[in-house]
Amino acid sequence: MSIASRGFALAAATAAVAVLAVTTSGCSSESDDKKSESKGGAAGSTASPSAPGASGGSPSAGAGDGTIPDGPGPQSSYTVQKQPAPGTCTYRWTAAKEPLPDPKCTPGATNPKVTPATLKTTICRSGYTKDIRPPTNITGREKTANAASYGYKKSLRDAEYDHLISLQLGGDPNDPRNLWVEPPSPGHKEGAGPNNPKDSVETKLKHAICAGKADLRKAQQAIARDWTTALAAVGVKDDGKGRRETADADGD
User: Fold this and answer.
1) What 3-state class would DSSP assign to 30?
2) Do residues 108 and 171 lie in contact, with contact meaning Cβ atoms separated by under 8 Å?
3) Which of 57, 73, 91, 212 has the fewest Cβ atoms within 10 Å of its own Cβ atom?
4) What is the rounded distance in angstroms from the CA atom of residue 217 to the CA atom of residue 214?
5) How distant, in Å, are the alpha carbons of 54, 71, 163, 236 from that of 207?
6) Is 66 exposed, middle or buried (0-12, 13-18, 19+ CB in 10 A)?
């Protein structure tokens, strides 16, 4: 091979190595970018997950281990929340025929603003629940949809759209996981409107918490599990008087 031919071959080989280096470097950079996106999203992204039960999404149940999820908490402006699909929730009934919700649809959700450290400024402050309660133009529409979720066919005037963990026990105001159409208890007079004994249980628990005689978290778990046994579960004596604090009671 002539000297000229050898020189041409050497130049061609050098050029090929340079092209290969650039190509390899480009592939590595693209791969790293994709890995970064898969782990943390696109560069510069500030998107955050939707709040549980946010409007337009499906309400999700709790963790399945007895842990009660936090809801979004009180809002300056409430929006109608999506309810479980019609006919997908099933009532449970105690031996005394008292109603309990479906734990898959209504596991309960807590208000993150209410903690053992904030009791004096939240649930133990008179009028607190009134300040955070969603308006009826929101809850009325949710109640109708939730009745369909549970297959409730009777008059909605006699059913309470109930916070499973009441507002006075630190329940979330408008998380769909914490609201259900509660049928009236046995002995209820048709057309008389909601009058459920669960309300007095909630108020007794609230008074015990604020008096330092009951633990907030244990009371929330007890009421979410079974409101008919909640007092006994946290060691609060039921005096049978049905005491109810109207201003802070968790109603419709």
Assistant:
1) helix
2) yes
3) 212
4) 9
5) 31, 23, 18, 10
6) exposed
